[in-house]
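Is this the right way to post structure tokens for a design question? Let me know if I should format differently. Anyway, here goes:
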């Protein structure tokens, strides 16, 4: 299956996500880098370039996730990542000011590999929080299914 995302499909995915990264809740309007179409299940693992398998992702989340489907946690067991089309964000994460706290193993693994609490990302989130721009106004309605 092609990696090419048509302009109309890109527009649909972007509007569905309200220009918010479906993992870290960053707002595309605050980024110098255009957000990317992320294959939730990568083409390498049989994922298709269709709306149900695409998520809007900031560069940092997409780059960190790569083609991975999950990770091994401290218990030695494979744990899949958060799936923006199938999972409710609040089942796996909570926000404590600018810090992401896992509510499940899925949240823990996603936070770990996507480096959602990396120092630089925390500093950026804190700066937006201080001016009332994190999470972005659309984020809370977006992440509730």
């Amino acid at each position: 299956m092609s990696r090419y995302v048509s302009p109309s499909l890109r527009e649909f995915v972007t509007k569905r996500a309200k220009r918010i990264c479906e993992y870290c809740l960053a707002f595309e309007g605050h980024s110098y880098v255009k957000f990317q179409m992320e294959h939730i299940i990568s083409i390498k693992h049989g994922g298709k370039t269709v709306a149900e398998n695409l998520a809007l992702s900031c560069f940092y989340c997409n780059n960190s996730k790569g083609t991975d489907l999950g990770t091994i946690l401290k218990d030695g067991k494979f744990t899949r990542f958060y799936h923006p089309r199938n999972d409710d964000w609040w089942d796996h994460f909570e926000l404590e000011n600018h810090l992401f706290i896992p509510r499940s193993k899925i949240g823990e693994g996603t936070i770990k590999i996507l480096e959602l609490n990396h120092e630089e990302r925390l500093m950026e989130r804190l700066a937006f929080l201080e001016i009332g721009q994190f999470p972005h106004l659309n984020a809370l309605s977006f992440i509730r299914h």
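Format looks fine. Someone answered above. Worth noting: The chain is about 30% helix and 15% strand. Helices lie at 7-16, 59-65, 89-92, 105-113, 119-130, 139-143.
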